[in-house]
Design a protein that fits this description.
Elements lengths: L3 H5 L6 H30 L1 E4 L2 E4 L1 H9 L4 H20 L1 H24 L2 H15 L2 H16 L3 H31 L1 H16 L6 H8 L3 H25 L3 H9 L4 H30 L1 H4 L7 H10 L3 H33 L3
Antiparallel strand pairs: 1-2
Helix pairs in contact: 5-8, 5-11, 6-7, 7-16, 8-9, 8-11, 8-13, 8-15, 9-11, 10-11, 11-13, 12-13, 13-16, 15-16
Length: 349
């Protein structure tokens, strides 16, 4: 029996032929890349002599075996020069940021240290009871009293001040950027790889620009922690606003609401649970940075952990680390409970 393919006279490609033809451009592309990589190496290895051009195969083999890393050294030197230039020409800006952070952080730290410890413990227990319940209130009170018995009360207040300043600055920066990104697909596309890089970058790397631009002390620790902890709040603010129901937006617009009213009275309130989840993640990431930030001079529980490790006192380092755990649990449960209450009040979920 003669097939339709044979009677038509036209050559119809089979599935296997189609597969091979689809793979051909990919193989050709890789072959072209290899040629472009090897041609400069070969050209460099042709040296002119009196008798003409002589090919040095041994030099070619060495160049192929050893990656040409000298280019990276030039890039590193270029970065160093740019940092020196920025310090020389933008030093006034970095000094202003450092002064502003110190102006906010130091009075808050002094105020928390000045407060009597029973007042702090009672206030924290009351807030935990109101937001979560009796269990967290008891945990908060017992945990803070234990930190006092461990001799870590002042360090705890220093870390609390660092968290308050850092998280407040994160919210002040992340929420407007997240709102803007939710209204602009172009900005969202630009921010996505930047936020990916910020979240995957090793936390120690953030100390490099902090030291380069802000020297040592609490201000560079605040800046490094800020950069490390801000991405979750930006992402979840953007996500929460984008997830607001389109029917709700259309109904609000049909009543003549302006863009500002739509954002402030509809989108942000409905997205508040998601925004608070971002604040929660930002708070925990800031606490995770406490010990690392102590490497650039941050005071508090992180400094106690670092000092205990440096002096081979694992007991003291463990107690300071336990204090960080207490703060993390208290902040995590309270912010989660606040987000849940916002969700229930709006009837979301």
């Amino acid at each position: 029996m003669i097939s339709e393919r044979e009677t038509s006279g036209a050559s119809v490609p089979t599935g296997e032929e189609t597969k091979h033809s689809a793979l051909m451009p990919g193989w050709l592309g890789w072959l072209g890349i290899m040629v472009l990589v090897l041609i400069p190496i070969v050209i460099v290895d042709f040296r002119s002599e009196e008798v003409g051009l002589v090919f040095d195969s041994e030099s070619l083999s060495e160049r192929v075996r050893v990656f040409p890393h000298d280019v990276g050294r030039d890039i590193g030197l270029w970065i160093d020069e740019r940092i020196d230039w920025m310090n020389a020409n933008l030093g006034f800006f970095f000094n202003a940021v450092r002064t502003l952070v110190s102006y906010i952080f130091e009075p808050l730290e002094a105020f928390l240290k000045w407060l009597p410890w029973p007042v702090v413990v009672f206030a924290l227990g009351l807030v935990s009871w109101a937001l979560v319940g009796r269990t967290l209130a008891i945990f908060s009170v017992v945990g803070m009293i234990l930190l006092g018995f461990f001799g870590l009360w002042e360090s705890t207040m220093e870390t609390t001040a660092l968290m308050i300043v850092t998280v407040t600055m994160c919210i002040a920066i992340a929420v407007p950027i997240g709102v803007w990104a939710s209204q602009s697909d172009r900005l969202d596309a630009i921010l996505r790889p930047i936020l990916d890089g910020m979240q995957t970058m090793p936390s120690f790397v953030y100390l490099v620009p902090a030291i380069a631009f802000f020297s040592l002390g609490n201000p560079p620790a605040v800046i490094a922690t800020l950069v490390y902890a801000v991405p979750p709040a930006v992402r979840l603010t953007n996500l929460g606003i984008r997830q607001v129901s389109q029917e709700t937006i259309e109904a609000t617009e049909s009543f003549g609401a302006t863009s500002w009213q739509l954002m402030m009275k509809v989108k942000i309130p409905l997205a508040m649970p998601t925004i608070m989840a971002g604040v929660n993640q930002t708070t925990l990431m800031a606490l995770a940075m406490v010990v690392i930030a102590s490497l650039v001079g941050a005071s508090g529980l992180g400094e106690d952990v670092l000092r205990g490790l440096g002096r081979l006192e694992p007991g003291n380092a463990f107690l300071a680390g336990l204090g960080i755990v207490f703060l993390a649990v208290i902040m995590d449960r309270n912010t989660q409970a606040f987000a849940k209450k916002q969700q229930e009040s709006l009837g979301v979920g």
